[in-house]
Input
Amino acid sequence: MTTPTDRHTLRKSRSQQEAYMFTSIEGRSVIVTGASRGIGKGIAQVFANKGAQILVVSRNLGPAEATAKEICAVGGKASALAADVSNWADAKRIAAAASDQFGGIDILCANAGIFPAAKLDDLTPEGWDEVLNTNLKGIFLTVKACLPAMKTKQKGRIIVTSSITGPITGYPGWTHYGASKAGQLGFMHTAAIELAPHNITINAVLPGNIKTEGLDGLGSEYLGKMTASIPMKRLGSAEDIAFAALFFASDEAAYITGQTLVVDGGQVLPESLMALEEIEKMT
Ligand code: NAP
Output
């Protein structure tokens, strides 16, 4: 027989469950690469706000420290590390830092990436290598470095920030970028199979155009015309991507691996400019 106190506790825990929807990630050890600004910073802030401990990684220490400080200032837990994801020794330092500071690695958000534009006539072999080394080799190295710690726990979550550009769409100047982002998905499909027996999932978020410092660098004309081509008529926010990553990181997403989630305000959907003109007429 349940007592009034039991019933109160039950009611409270049910309403708490309903309020949170997902199992808490409080205390989880999370690495976010490219977290000094933009999407990575948004992921770091959202995960920290849910109680996770965050290792903020970027090549430049100052901005990474500033992000970690901002998180700590509002009661979160974070530390910063300067490391280059395209360098194997640095990737191992990232994994070691999270393990040493937080007692293991639960979640890797492999987000660091660059998107310098260069059309084929101007794209140099060095420019190609820089983008592929950061965006594609970078996820291979960081995932590989984190695996021993995840395999020890026989549990882990890896979330890759890919893009609609490459896997779904194309844009002049981004052959190298598109190849790197489509390549991330090719990597993910086989990694998902290899990691499944260890209870480690790997999934990818495919952002559309997200308002970040990096995107701002493409100029106001790009931002204006891009906004006009999105059915929701706004650029995405870093938080829009962070909440998709948070879903993949949740216990409730345990049976989802090797999958993609497009977060783009409907950008890839219109068949033609006419489709956008039609919705203009309707509003
Ligand atoms: P961002 O504002 O330029 O920020 C990039 C972050 O990555 C910074 O923290 C940067 O810090 C770090 N970084 C760059 N190269 C690195 C390296 N080799 N090692 C470690 N850290 C590195 O970019 P964003 O717009 O937030 O984009 C983040 C990710 O989302 C990228 O993978 C990008 O391709 C993807 N994405 C973005 C959009 C968008 O619209 N913004 C759309 C689709 C996909 P340091 O320079 O100090 O290293």
In short: Residues 125-153 form the longest helix (29 residues). Strands lie at 29-33, 53-58, 77-82, 107-110, 156-161, 200-207, 260-263. The chain has ten helices and seven strands. The radius of gyration is 20 Å.
